[in-house]
Amino acid sequence: DPVVRTVNLVKIYQNGGVPVPAVRGIDLSVEPGSFTAITGPSGSGKSTLVHMLGGLDPRTSGEIWMSGKRVDTLSESAWALLRRERIGLVFQFFNLIGNMTVADNVELPALLAGATPREARERREYLLGELGLADRADDSPTRLAGGEQQRVALARALANRPSLLLADEPTGNLDSRNTRDVLRLLSQVHKDGQTIIMVTHDARVASLADRLVTLLDGQIVDDGSIPAPRRRP
Ligand code: ADP
Ligand code: ADP
């Protein structure tokens, strides 16, 4: 079964009574272990799509399936459980917990997913180390710069080794050195067989993906799966 499958997925916001169609009939199937980059101009529905896939924004109509199970009809609490067990999220509002250290923010999802304290600590040390944040472990996230918070959010999203990583512009605030660290970690996650769906404008990030889906006005206008190697004539 695909990790994610949508059937005629639609989202129409109501803006003071005026309907704003954000996603207009998306059929998307994502295979286990694949890395899909989603691109398209501002306002084309990318964020809305990944928010719906993470259960953060209810659909207007259509279906969402995950690994053979229909999920668009789940309750809030069932979504919360699904995220805890299987999905890592990196969105633009990082939602880091200000009165906990960076280390605790990253360890928490691992602990909630059933890791022992020692496993959670080792995973946190690995992730913060890979992202150049080892010396920030004891700080409050509120003391960090935007790009640092963004990397902490990525570490937190990966702490429970989610089978699906959903990310919205995870390199949006990063300089080239930090982007390189993030790219290296994403390559590793992909190699480990985790599925990635990522909104990005960054060609370096997109180049890691094996599929590039382009949205325009809430619809898929291009779906560039990497073709099989071309045979010589
Ligand atoms: P993208 O991520 O590609 O920039 P979005 O998914 O953020 O696109 O937005 C798609 C469309 O939906 C835009 O027209 C945007 O203004 C609108 N939109 C997004 N969120 C809301 C919201 N909460 N209420 C009303 N309209 C929204
Ligand atoms: P993103 O690129 O993630 O959509 P935005 O800055 O466009 O980020 O949106 C920030 C927040 O405002 C999001 O929660 C989004 O859903 C909401 N939003 C976006 N467009 C609109 C809109 N036209 N009306 C109301 N809320 C919106």
TrEMBL record:
All residue ranges annotated as the ABC transporter domain in the record: 4-233
GO molecular function: ATP binding; ATP hydrolysis activity; transmembrane transporter activity
Top-level lineage group: Bacteria
UniProt family annotation: Belongs to the ABC transporter superfamily.
Record protein name field: Putative ABC transport system ATP-binding protein
Any one of the GO CC terms: membrane protein complex
Pfam family, one: ABC_tran
